Give the backbone structure.
Amino acid sequence: MAQYRCSVQKAVSRGKGQSAVAKAAYNARESLRDERTGELKDYSRSHHNVLFSGIFVDPKIGAPEWVQDRAKLWNEASAAETKKNAREAQEIIVNLPHDLTPEQQEFMLKDFVREQITRGTGRIADVNIHRAPKDGDDRNIHAHILMTVREIGPQGFGEKLPEVDTKQIDRWKEKWAERGAKELRKAGLDLEADRWAVGHRNKAFQREDAVRRGDQEHIEWCDREATKHLGPQVAAMERKGIETDRGAEYRATIEANKLQAELRAELQTVRLEIAGYERGTLPAATQEHTSQQPTPAPKLGRTAAEIHAAYAAAKMPGRTLTDTLEDRGLILSETTAADAERLNKWEAQRLRELAAAPTVPQAPQQKREAERQLNPGQQQEQERELKDYKKYRAGELVVINQHGDIYKLTRSNTGDDAKERAEHLKDIDRAPLLSITAAQAAMQQFRQEQREETEATRQHYYRPEEPPKELTGTAAKILLAHYRSDNAQSFVAALAEKGIAVAITTEEDAERSQSAAAAAFTKGSYAPVYREGEIVAINDRATVYRLNESTTGSKFADMQRYLRTLDTSELRSIEATKQMMYDRAAERGGRGLSNTSGLGVHEQEILDRAERRTKENERAAATREGVQHRTVLDREARRTMENERAQGPRNTRDS
């Protein structure tokens, strides 16, 4: 199903350290130099991921020829801005229907850009189509539209265009939905066109529209939980095998949606079974479809597809089904009597609960089948058959996946009917096969070992390979403590041994740091700003150290996640920790800082800094006065010596 997307991103802001030149280089996968900073932004190694690239401008404007030069265009756009927090560009990201051909996708995008963005607006649009990311969804073909924020004219950039408001965003989203639906309908894809046409509306509206059209697949898609975008950095870490919180949340959402879809499909199957289709009887769960009429290939899930491949490979000489399944991380198990009894009890209870659940929206044909009502006698007959319903039987071969799920060998996942399957499986040695219970326990142990291995990898990732030798003082102590620690708790303990405490930034600490930074900025100096919830280190002189790459060898975000395993309720605030350090210094007899003036910690620290700065200024002034005094004396001495040399020869001649 084609996934609609038209996302208007936040403006490229110089105040956030962003650059239109860098954004253009990334989108086009080219190498561009930012003339304002002198930095070279080189993404050309991934140029093969760009399917189309072009710059669009209204020809009626008469823009200069250099607008077609990407480097010149975005350097000029950057040079036109003078403020340090200026907006340099605006970006839109859109998905292209994967059902269309590349030519149709390109035509659709060009038409939208010309009609909705550049015509009569004075905007320039830098457009790039990207192929689907590696190791991602191969349907994720998307385009980046980077727009200028100043009006272009024959003389170059002029007045600033108004900021994009909600009304304009809604119009772009609506027009992209209309444009996509039109192209899909032209391609004969009416169902996809109907879905795309309402893609810009909320999920509730899309679901109502799908119910009206009887589109069961779209209804299920609307009912699923939305996933959060990973982003390029997180996606890159996940591809390297580094688990992240966002990645874990993404995987959990995918699994929840998959489970919801499976339960919904199973619920519908059970309802039809209980209704007895048109016969009024409940068919046996293991009844096989032996019709010789050709049937379409089923859409298999991941495990079912692996079973199908393993079953086919087992037909080759010298290969057994047990081996081919193990190659794919699956276990072939034999159902024991105890397994069958336990699972059948659970299955009977589950079927009753599913039968009592509220009906989900259904397609018209399925709805007519499910609406067939049974009389009381038929209902009693159904209940008796449900009690005798045996899904699992002793001696039956099943497959267990890594999550402990049970898969029966059926026509859909093997390609053979019951007779052919029995012939193929008759020579399997069942003596070494595990029971279902034992196989599930083995898979549980396997998953536990995987989690421990992943945790060990994550712990190793957070630790630097070798502490830099150029660090000294508190920074070196922090780095060594981190290097020699196995977890966050031992890291805090190692810091405590070195007289360094760990604190958490409260809301008051964050506001105080912002005020101090603003005051420092007005005086031309710098003071750090701490975020609420940030964990920092404070040494015995009450100096705050941010735990980032320079002090720990790990990135700031990684360190904060690493320290979240601590019980933050036991951590003091920055202000309270500083006061503790002052008190310790007083107990040591005046070593370090002291705070005996009765002022707050922050005020005392400001006074201490001011006093130190005053003394430094006085020493500097005295040094300058001494230098000036010595300079004057040296100058007078040189003048006297020159006069004496000049008078000496005249006196000699006179004598």
In short: The two ends are 118 Å apart (CA to CA).
